[in-house]
Design brief:
41% of the residues lie in helices and 19% in strands. The protein has 432 residues and is an alpha/beta fold. The termini are far apart.
């Protein structure tokens, strides 16, 4: 039996200022067979959502191709539907009208449109809300409308782009469970699902296969099969083992390369590197937790994530920052504090600032560059725009702005320099 979907050698890039391109996806191959839920798991910026848009026919790849039921996808394909993170409902339409809109675009007969829309609304648990408007619904109910709208066209493939991430924990769990129940009972008019997520437990809970993406650019780094029977229990040792395995895959060191010679493990190398906006409070809290009596300097990332209620899009950037500053080492699913990390965790406020400033200047070239420019100027001050223009030679405007905001925040905490938000000027408070 041929695959429902075949993705072959897909590459995607976006233009950025200066005429350069940012490579987002590189050489992605994916096969989707009937009767399976496949998860795309990775950090933000790994190209998961970009790949989903290419599969849906909403974007064209730079190279490579996508075929659905042996036909090339060159635009929105009938038989492939999508559920978005942001609900994407029309606020001026009722629930029934929002669900019907896809069928209207397909020129289905009016009686059939109404019959199928009501059936989809009933299936997804919104019976009685047909005449309600989105503003009258909770977040979970709005996302149910999104599911009904996707399912009403009876697609073979349902694409889900982080459909539960905008919901509170309890609502997300309820909707996730209801979806899995309908899927297991064969009540959904779909043959297969691709789920984009950054939640490792969600991937293990829902998927038959999990494709782990690397970043910069996005590639499929590994595939993990999940053979646990539904319904799955998060406390089952086999479930926890799979979660641990995925954490290890996402933090795995390149084979044969010593940790001390792995510059790619430190995302702050180079002035032109995109840096995560991690708050000092967050990384200090993670350091304190790992340094505490429960872990004594070395912790399993899944346990830390559970203890601090952190998902990977929060945990991994924070761990990356600690590693970048040589305050911790991350690998194989664990985080281990360095001597400097222990010193920071056990220091008072003033000593923490001194340690932080020293590590920033030593290991974040952009911070050292800003400080050097300020030292050399007679005024010991420079507009933020001066550094923003430099960064835009390496990255897009949004990434440049986020990166500069990150190093401004860190520099202020370490008292490496000061910043006036009203004037947009970075300066030395006490120039020597």
């Amino acid at each position: 039996m041929s695959a429902l979907l075949q993705v072959s050698g897909v590459r995607q890039a976006f233009s950025r200022s200066g005429g350069n391109e940012l490579l987002v996806l590189d050489g992605v191959d994916l096969t989707l067979n009937e009767g399976e839920i496949v998860g795309l798991l990775g950090r933000s910026g790994s190209g998961k959502s970009s790949l989903l848009r290419i599969i849906a026919g909403l974007a064209d790849p730079l190279s490579g191709n996508v075929s659905y039921m042996d036909h090339p996808v060159s635009g929105p394909a009938q038989g492939i539907a999508m559920v978005f993170q942001s609900f994407a409902l029309f606020p001026w339409l009722t629930v029934l009208e929002n669900v019907q809109i896809g069928l209207e675009a397909m020129h289905v007969a009016p009686d059939e449109i109404r019959r199928r829309a009501i059936a989809a609304i009933d299936l997804i648990g919104l019976d009685g809300y047909e005449s309600a408007y989105p503003r009258e619904l909770s977040g979970g109910m709005r996302q149910r409308v999104g599911f009904a709208r996707a399912l009403v066209v009876h697609p073979n493939i349902l694409l889900m782009d982080e459909p539960f991430s905008a919901l509170d924990v309890l609502t997300a769990e309820t909707l996730r469970t209801d979806f899995l129940d309908l899927w297991s009972e064969g009540q959904l008019p779909i043959k297969s699902v691709i789920l984009v997520t950054h939640n490792i437990e969600e991937a293990v809970l829902m998927c038959d296969r999990v494709l782990v993406f690397s970043t910069n650019p996005g590639r499929i780094a590994s595939e993990i099969k999940v053979t646990l029977r539904q319904p799955r229990n998060r406390l089952d040792p086999s479930f926890r083992s799979l979660v641990d395995q995925i954490y290890s895959e996402m933090t795995k060191r390149p084979s044969g390369v010593p940790a001390s010679t792995r510059p790619e493990r430190f995302p702050g190398v180079g002035i032109g590197s995109v840096l995560p906006r991690v708050s000092v409070t967050l990384f200090a809290g993670l350091l304190e937790e790992v340094a505490g009596d429960a872990y004594k300097g070395k912790a399993d990332l899944p346990l830390i994530a559970q203890a601090l209620h952190m998902e990977i899009d929060e945990l991994f950037p924070t761990a990356d920052m600690l590693q970048m500053l040589r305050l911790a080492e991350v690998g194989d699913g664990d985080i281990r504090l360095t001597e400097h990390g222990f010193a920071f965790a056990n220091a008072d406020t003033d000593d923490r600032k001194r340690i932080f400033a020293r590590q920033l200047l030593a290991y974040v070239p952009l911070v050292a560059h800003i400080r050097r420019v300020l030292d050399e100027r007679p005024s010991h001050a420079a507009p933020k725009s001066r550094f923003l223009d430099e960064l835009e030679d390496y990255m897009d405007e949004t990434s440049a702005d986020e990166t500069l905001k990150a190093v401004i925040s860190w520099g202020r905490y370490g008292e490496v320099y000061a910043y006036d938000d009203d004037t947009g000027v970075i300066s030395l408070e006490n120039p020597v």
